[in-house]
Amino acid sequence: MDLAKRGHKIVPVILSGGSGTRLWPVSRKSFPKQFWPLISERSLLADTALRAASAQFTPPIVVANQDHRFIAAEQLRDAGIRGAQIVLEPVGRNSAPAIAAAALLAAESDPDAVLWIMAADASISDLAALETAVKSAAKAAEAGYFVTFGMQPTAPETGYGYIAQGAAMDGLPGVFHLNRFIEKPDAATAARLLAEGGNLWNSGMFMFRAGVLLGEMERLAPEVLEAVRAAMLARTTDLDFIRLDTEAFAAAPDISIDYAIAEKTNKAVVVPAAIGWSDVGSWAALADIAAKDTNGNFALGDVVLENVHNSYARSDGIMTALLGVSDLVVVTTQDAVLVAHKNEAQNVKKIVDRLKQMKRPEADTHNRTYRPWGFYESLIQGDRFQVKRIVVWPGHKLSLQKHFHRAEHWVVVAGCAAVTRDAETLMVHENESVYLPLGCIHRMENPGKIPLTIIEVQSGPYLGEDDIVRFEDTYGRN
């Protein structure tokens, strides 16, 4: 996508704060769907950033939950995205405050910069059609309009809001007046909207000049702008990250850009687009866009199908077999299994809500926990002991730390570890081990060129992750 001859620069803004609970058990609060490779070999975030990178725009502004900062930064680096500005939300406040923060940041260098707002977790298959839509939207945004992207509906979908398309705009090919927004409809209303024509799915993708957005916020949502401006003024920088002030940002109303601005502004227009778009909002939606066999099935991972039709099966854990069933979604992870009829796929969040009521950790967290240095996962847990697998990326190291309630035994099974144990520094090679008594100050580092894998055996009366005192940390977690 080549827009290099345009006047104002376009700044991609990627919103990456969602938790994607309708794709549980793969997507959870600790590692939501935008960080998973659900469509291609790359994560949804990486695919989104690369779509913008291929457009020869500026490096993106990514607004992310602070708990996901290292995951987002690592995935952007792995995708070859350089110069991204990662803005960290201390608390979730929906899309209007997130977009306001991005607009304020962009306006510091260029108030006329055109912002292209997109979610980190959508799928777009027709990039040529996307280029055409973006070119039309950019011209309208430069002219001072608040541009929405309306997706041409392919089914009477009840999971999306709709946009009623109006007459064509003079002098802006591909751009139309926006008559009204329509809330998510019931099935009968959705069927009627599809039959009528001229009604588009609201994609949540927008384009406008930074100054236009801020002006409309000043007029229509001043309490949002006031709180976010204060959070930006008091921001701090940390490694690759821009940290918004917690107290100021928490004071912002929890409101979407649709309710705060889009449905109220008199500057709204719409660009209809047929770009192979999906919000990947449910397992059924993912099944719709997945490549299928002759029986209409999609299978990924260690999956066996026999006499199965129109089903979606995925295993990131143990072998999963389906026999004599149809229209199912079956998803297996290391610690949970979901079996649902496709017609119920939109209601997976109800299961997550039930799990939260039961205080089950599976609602929010995976067995595998990612850290800036790598990840760890629990293998066995019993009375006064736990066994973990820990993987440390080359060149990375854990914090210098100690524990009050547990001792640890590290066995290196791949790679080489540089271990600090009080005043000692030890090199521990494959098939060697080191004992860390309770209370000792210790650290593990991977000085090699391959991932370091260790088996950690913990023993003690309390094995919680909060039993840690950090003395020094490369990643600012002291």
UniProtKB/TrEMBL annotation:
CDD domains: cupin_PMI_typeII_C, GDP-M1P_Guanylyltransferase. Residues 307-355 form the MannoseP isomerase/GMP-like beta-helix domain. Residues 360-473 form the Mannose-6-phosphate isomerase type II C-terminal domain. Residues 12-295 form the Nucleotidyl transferase domain. InterPro entries: GMPP_N, Man1P_GuaTrfase/Man6P_Isoase, Man6P_isomerase-2_C, ManC/GMP-like_b-helix, Mannose-6P_isomerase_type2, NTP_transferase_dom, Nucleotide-diphossugar_trans, RmlC-like_jellyroll. Transmembrane segments: none annotated. Keywords: GTP-binding, Isomerase, Nucleotide-binding, Nucleotidyltransferase, Transferase. It holds the Pfam family ManC_GMP_beta-helix. It comes from the Bacteria. One of its GO terms (molecular function) is isomerase activity. It is an enzyme of class 2 (transferase). It catalyses: alpha-D-mannose 1-phosphate + GTP + H(+) = GDP-alpha-D-mannose + diphosphate. Its EC number is 2.7.7.13. NCBIfam families: GMP_PMI (TIGR01479). Belongs to the mannose-6-phosphate isomerase type 2 family. This is mannose-1-phosphate guanylyltransferase. It comes from Acidocella aquatica.
